[in-house]
Amino acid sequence: MFWLQVKKVVIVAAGALLNALAMNLFLIPANVYSSGFAGIAQLLSKVLSDYTPINISMGLLLLLLNIPVAILGWKKVGRSFTIYSFVSVVLSSLFLSIIPIKQVSHDILLNAVFGGVILAIGVGITLKWGASTGGVDIIAMVLSRVKDKPVGPYMFILNGIIILTAGFLYGWEKALYTLVTLYAATRVIDAIHTRHAKLTAMIITKKADDMKKAIHAKLVRGITMIPAKGAFSNETRDMLMIVITRYELFDLERIIKEVDPNAFTNIVQTAEVYGFFRKE
Predict the structure, then answer these.
(1) Is residue 97 located within the same domain as residue 223?
(2) CA-to-CA distance for 28 and 89, rounded, in angstroms?
(3) Per-residue 3-state assignment (H helix, E strand, C coil) for the chain
């Protein structure tokens, strides 16, 4: 368990480093904007330095924006997820301050694509290991667990504000290239982790009772147990069906590997949930 936590911190640190590299080497020099809180911090830093005598680094703004969100996550989501997410934010802010802003390429399209891809790799591996890069991800977790509301419209509005503001202040070409960055980032995150808000896991195992207890000890989710039988072996097994959020996928994967490494698990996208979906 200790080495798993160490490995998780290393992964979170690597993700934060990739985020900072994407911002300082590609997106910031080209005036192409990221999504979410990183995009807001980037845009605010640029607007303050251009239109006021105030000069605040993007790293500091990112940290300040995430403090109230971290407090909300601590109260509504849970300590482990929030701690690792805030560690990711702190490390990102640190790396953004340490790594110099340097233009690698003068081609704005290359900056938009490579910046989006590198950023998405950092975000993707962080999500895959049960943490997040803060900001909108923690808000999504809170909405999912408390009110069961989709985060998609909020992300759309937030990114829309970033793109429109960038367009009005710095030209619509920058806004269009920001869309390229967002598209590239989304596709890469889809490949590494998943953008789907909810997932359904179907676990076929011989250790159904142990699996059920382990899942209930870690996740606050209902489980449907269905009798199953192997077509070739004729062995009787049980299938556990559980609907989770994408942020709980890491914990579920670890539970399955610990309880029954030989269990067959199918993870599928859940488009909609009707009826009782347990929330904390």
Answers:
(1) no
(2) 18
(3) CHHHHHHHHHHHHHHHHHHHHHHHHHHHHHCCCCCHHHHHHHHHHHHHHHHCCCCCCHHHHHHHHHHHHHHHHHHHCCHHHHHHHHHHHHHHHHHHHHCCCCCCCCCHHHHHHHHHHHHHHHHHHHHHCCCCCCCHHHHHHHHHHHCCCCCHHHHHHHHHHHHHHHHHHHCHHHHHHHHHHHHHHHHHHHHHCCCCCEEEEEEEECCHHHHHHHHHHHCCCCCEEEEEECCCCCCEEEEEEEEEEHHHHHHHHHHHHHHCCCCEEEEEECCCCCCCCCCC
Q: Is residue 134 part of a domain?
A: yes
**Residue 87 in domain:** yes
Cβ-contact 211, 260 below 8 angstroms:
yes
Q: Which two tokens stand for residue 247?
A: 């942020």
Q: Write the CB contacts of 59 (distance below 8 Å, at least 6 apart in sequence).
A: 20, 41, 92, 93, 94, 95, 96, 97
pLDDT in tens, 229-248: 888 888 889 999 998 877 78
What is the pTM for the complete model shown?
Answer: 0.73
User: 55 and 8 in one domain?
Assistant: yes
Residues 47-93: tens digit of each pLDDT = 888 888 888 888 898 999 889 888 887 877 667 778 888 899 999 99
What does DSSP say about strands 264-269 and 224-229: parallel, antiparallel, or unpaired?
unpaired
Same domain, 182 and 220: no
| Distance of alpha carbon 202 from alpha carbon 260, whole angstroms | 14
Range of the domain at 208: 198-269
Give a yes or no: residue 280 inside a domain: no
Any idea what the CATH number is for the domain that residue 255 is in? 3.30.70.120
